[in-house]
Amino acid sequence: MDFLIPQLLRVLEPGRIAAIHVKDRIIPGGISGFGFQTLSTLHCDCIARF
Fold first, then answer.
1. Per-domain residue ranges of the chain
2. Which residues make beta-bridge pairs with 27?
3. I need a labelling partner for 10 at 20 to 30 A (CA). Which of 4, 24, 29, 35 fits?
4. How far apart are the C-alpha atoms of 35 and 23, rounded to whole Å?
5. 8-34 pLDDT tens trace
6. 3-38 burial, b if ≥16 CB within 10 A, otherwise e?
């Protein structure tokens, strides 16, 4: 996202809207090590960067 968002803002014409569709990924408990399912926080990262 460090490359994508500045480039989107650079090429976006004034008065236009950048719509980004993000989906939270469910991470199984065996992979995360917590023992239960967790969500990735991609949507929070996108909101914070804009």
1. 25-50
2. 38
3. 24
4. 22
5. 889 999 998 888 888 888 888 777 677
6. eeeeeeeeeeeeeeeeeeeeeeeeeeeeeeeeeeeb
Residues 6+ apart with CB under 8 A from 8: 18
pTM: 0.53
How is 13-50 classified by DSSP, letter by letter? PTT--------PPEEPHHHHSSSS-EE--HHHHHHHH-
Name 16's bridge partners.
none
Residue with tokens 């989107």: 8
Alpha-carbon distance 32 to 48, whole Å?
24
Q: In this structure, what are the phi and psi dihedrals at residue 18, rounded to the nearest 5 degrees?
A: -100, 110
